[in-house]
Design brief:
With about 210 residues, this protein is mainly alpha-helical. The chain is built from nine helices and four strands. It has a single domain, classed as Orthogonal Bundle (Trigger factor, domain 2). The strands form two sheets. It has a two-stranded antiparallel sheet.
Length: about 210
């Protein structure tokens, strides 16, 4: 169980970030290609999720919506608060941290400001805040994988074919990558976005939501 308000807040941040399809790229970097950041590819194949996550109940819950929260954000929040991340795999945390650092460096270069100024302009008090965000995103990834394994949620070949172009465009825009590069080299990342939305739809369908009076 998440035992303090600071950790609970991280789950809310992660839910918002994921619902917005990982909007980590600053405005103005939409033409940057992936080779400029040198980031590794996000991969969970070697992570034993059964060891890394103690998953809370994810269906049959009654969820109270907080102000301004969507149903998808709310259910990811409460699942995160009732679950426990036992292990944060370093490679995956480093991936998100690298993405954010690249964004800060790019902002610094484009706007001709120092790294520290760019950091604050993008909403980070220090690099520690970037690390906390990276861990929150990894935690959300791990929860998603655990839920999908438990519930048997998969993408069909038909879904991949029909939705790929739409999600590739979103991924390219959100991360600031060249669209051709995304379609050619980041297919698995695009499929992960599809899976996130499909998992969110499953969670919303299998839980009840209450608007406080």
């Amino acid at each position: 169980m998440i035992k303090n308000s600071r950790k609970a807040k991280l789950w809310r941040v992660a839910a918002v970030l994921l619902t917005l399809l990982f909007l980590l790229c600053a405005v103005g970097c939409a033409d940057k290609d992936a080779e400029s950041d040198g980031a590794s590819i996000l991969n969970y194949e070697n992570v034993d999720v059964s060891i890394a996550v103690r998953l809370g109940e994810y269906k049959g819950r009654t969820v109270i919506l907080l102000d301004g929260e969507s149903e998808a954000q709310a259910i990811w929040r409460v699942i995160g608060e009732s679950s426990e991340i036992l292990e944060y795999p370093k490679e995956q945390v480093d991936y998100y941290l690298s993405q954010t650092r690249t964004r800060v460096e790019y902002y610094s270069s484009v706007h001709n400001v120092s790294y520290e100024e760019a950091l604050k302009a993008l909403g980070y008090s220090n690099e520690g805040a970037m690390l906390e965000e990276a861990k929150a995103l990894v935690a959300s990834d791990l929860l998603g994988i655990a839920i999908r394994k438990s519930a048997g949620i998969i993408l069909t070949d038909d879904e991949k074919d029909k939705l790929f172009n739409k999600y590739a465009e979103k991924y390219a825009y959100d991360w600031g990558y060249n669209l051709a590069y995304v379609k050619d080299s980041l297919k698995e990342e695009v499929f992960e976005l599809m899976l996130y939305d499909k998992t969110s739809e499953y969670l919303v369908k299998n839980n009840t939501f209450v608007v406080p009076q």
